[in-house]
């Protein structure tokens, strides 16, 4: 399967690198697209090392000669993963916004394709009514959620909001492809 791995800027970003590695080992082709903010937490080169492919993050420095990376990325993917999915990114997807290359690629992806999101955030962020409205919207739009789970979050607070374990995200994807 061809997988577009969208990475948004959560403290759990580093786990997306482990997921990329596991997906490649499982025989999938993985192309990572980092949000603009995610590049402050993890590097495109890290994902390129693990996927043996270019990693995308800047729509103004396209790989595609016609400049349409977001379309090429969307068409190539069989499955889309948003791991981790921040509160901000979930809201952006729920409202059909495209603030960066990742947003444009997600918007350009055919709605029939399998799309998984693994939310990751502080427990109080997760239970905000506004966040819950956005989560309900993306689920209604066809996204499948993996997690979040209860436990210690990166900010040191305990509760529901911790990203699902990499093995569980992998299992959820493998069960559907
Ligand atoms: C160190 C750090 C860790 C963060 N962790 C999270 C997180 O786990 N979940 C979340 O929703 N936002 C988190 N944020 C805030 C997001 O990075 C911020 O909302 C950003 O705009 C998200 O952009 P993106 O969704 O385009 O990647 C964190 C910010 C910083 C500086």
Describe this structure in words.
- With 177 residues, the protein is α/β, with parallel strands linked by helices.
- The protein has a domain at 39-80 and 93-131 and 139-148: Rossmann fold (3-Layer(aba) Sandwich), CATH 3.40.50.1950.
- Helices cover 40% and strands 20% of the residues.
- The strands form two sheets. Strands 2-1-3-4-5 form a five-stranded parallel beta sheet, with helices on both faces. The chain has a two-stranded antiparallel ribbon with strand order 6-7.
- Strand 6 (149-152) and strand 7 (158-162) form a beta hairpin.
- Helix 1 packs parallel to helix 2 (44-51), helix 3 (69-76) packs across helix 5 and helix 4 (87-94) packs across helix 7.
- It is globular, with a radius of gyration of 15 Å.
- 46% of the residues are buried.
- Bound molecules: flavin mononucleotide (FMN).
- Residues 8-12, 35, 37-38, 86-89, 120-121, 125 line the site of flavin mononucleotide.
Offer a concise description of the structure:
The protein is an alpha/beta fold.
Q: What is the element layout, followed by pairings?
A:
Blueprint: E1 2-7, H1 13-25, E2 29-34, H2 44-51, H3 69-76, E3 79-85, H4 87-94, H5 101-108, E4 114-119, H6 123-126, H7 129-140, E5 144-145, E6 149-152, E7 158-162, H8 166-174
Parallel strand pairs: 1-2, 1-3, 3-4, 4-5
Antiparallel strand pairs: 6-7
Helix pairs in contact: 1-2, 1-8, 3-5, 4-7
Bound molecules: flavin mononucleotide.
Largest sheet: 5 strands, parallel
Distance between the termini: 8 Å
Please write the string of helix (H) and strand (E) elements. Answer: EHEHHEHHEHHEEEH
Q: What hetero molecules are bound to the protein chains?
A: flavin mononucleotide
CATH fold name of the domain at 39-80 and 93-131 and 139-148, please?
Rossmann fold
Looking across the biggest beta sheet, what order are the strands in?
2-1-3-4-5
Tally of strands:
7
Category from helices, strands and their pairing: alpha/beta
Mean pLDDT over the residues: 97
Strand residue percentage: 15-25%
CATH superfamily of the domain at 39-80 and 93-131 and 139-148: Flavin prenyltransferase-like
Spans where pLDDT lies below 50 across 5 or more residues: none
Q: Nearest-angstrom radius of gyration?
A: 15 Å
Helical coverage, percent range: 25-40%
**CATH level-1 class of the domain at 39-80 and 93-131 and 139-148:** Alpha Beta
Name given to the CATH architecture of the domain at 39-80 and 93-131 and 139-148: 3-Layer(aba) Sandwich
Taken from the alpha-carbon principal axes, the silhouette is: globular
List the total number of helices: 8
